[in-house]
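Chapter review: from sequence to fold.
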Amino acid sequence: MSDNILEVKNVVKNYADHRALDHVSLTVPKGVIYGLLGPNGAGKTSLIRIVNQITGPDEGTILFDGRPLSENNIYDIGYLPEERGLYKKMKVGEQLLYLARLKGLNKEDALEKLKEWFIKFDIKTWWDKNVEDLSKGMQQKVQFVATILHQPKLIILDEPFSGFDPINANLIKDEILELKEKGSTIIFSTHRMESVEELCDYICLINQSRKVLEGRKSEIKQQFKPNTFSLDFTGGLNGDNTTFIVQKSRTDTEGLISATLEARPVFSSNDILKELVDRVHVISFREDMASMNDVFLKSVKF
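The token string follows.
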């Protein structure tokens, strides 16, 4: 057994004259939500297909729970692709039962679990509906159930909120968090940085077929922090400032001043605050942190 559910080591994938993955290595710890990020064409889908054994790598190795990835691991993985793929002429219940059996569940267990999910998602009346009679968002719900019904160790979600209205997007978000709490590991591939901010523990950013960044989201954001501080105060900051430079400021109609300060070299937030309290009345003071959108834009070179 390993502390990591997935280890990708120096994987290379070529398509004719295009190298989709160029010696990519990454590690996905157990029990986390791991954001797989990158612009279109970066190589994310190629990597996901290799992990799902839809295709194979040209070079490199992949370990699943400490052992070489094998055919049996298809029962340990749930995959929700960005391009959804349901049989439109089949009835919802019949199709979910069929997909559950493919993932190794017997009919009795599959029916019991489906009953729980149909109640949980309030879709009890859908069992005998044809998939083609459902809206896109309703079909997404059905495919999400198919993805996680067999309680996989690793769940791979490619743009899982695509096509959902805000209410159903929140419903799926809550389910993702609950699955994590129950011990599943989730690889979350998305372009929506607000979802990464909200959900992910770790991130990996791939650009132009190579890994650019990997690690805890909090640590990566710390690396990219802009070394600026937001200050609300009353009073005046006239004269020279030893520990900071005022980048910009504005005053509202009641005399409250909001400013952005840049720390001078070697000075910390404590040094800045110490200088401020001797000169102005501080209302609020906080260090600015990099957003995931900032991290993405600074890391990806077009």
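Two observations follow directly from the output. The chain is about 30% helix and 30% strand. The chain has a mean pLDDT of 92.
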